[in-house]
Amino acid sequence: MKAGALDHLAGLAMLALVPTLTAAPAAAAAIQVTIEKLVFSPASVDAKVGDTIEWVNKDVIAHTATVKGGWEVIIPPKKSASLNLKAAGTIDYFCRFHPNMKGRLVVAP
Amino acid sequence: MFTRYTVALAALLLVGAAPVAQAADKPTDPQIAHIAYTAGVIDIEAAKQAIKKSKSKEVIDFAKDMERDHEAVNKQALDLVKKLKVKPEDNATSQALTKAATEERAKLAKLKGAAFDKAYIENEVAYHKQVNGALETLLIPSASNAELKSLLETGLKIFQGHEQHAEHVAGMLK
In chain A, whose CA is at the least distance from the CA of B154? Predict the structure, then answer.
């Protein structure tokens, strides 16, 4: 009975481990998006939850990466700013200071 | 010839009539540099007035964005003309722009509160539209130096962004 309980526990531990292992994402990547002359490039990025997007602003003016009703990252002139992706989905963003600048993140789970 | 393109630009600024500008004589690079720089100074002055007068956070934030961007672009323009050893040349178009802007500021100075905010933002939309029209159809095509042309092209993208930003703020005020 006691041994059986241990087996059971061991089994549970295994069960608990297995999904953790299979669900563990591949090493999180850092993905760069360059901003030059008011263009996000690449304009669309494929990423995974856990990846970090780093916007590198080469312009002399500040920009933002803003999601309507969501997050906002301000990227000062000649500086970089990062965001860790927490949720899956397709995210369209724009620059709040220059709304003619548009970008997209396609985030896989 | 100088008068002809000035009149053409004035017409363009008023009605956005591209064909008129194309038929006109081209401004020179020193004149283009002066016109572009003056256009920036005008918007900085307008922004300073709004920062001082407005009570609306949206309007003040917008004005600060304008002041910051136009100062950065004008600094870049000054660096470029220095590098190219071009001396910006005052001209009738720059003078006409400054005169119109001085009148607009005097008009805005008499307004208060929501009336000021509305008039400032509406003028920002109209002003950026006019300057963008002039950049697109006259100043960029006339620029002969490649670096000056490139700076004007980036300027156009920035100011098109400002026009959309101003339209957005105008929508929020309604």
Answer: A37
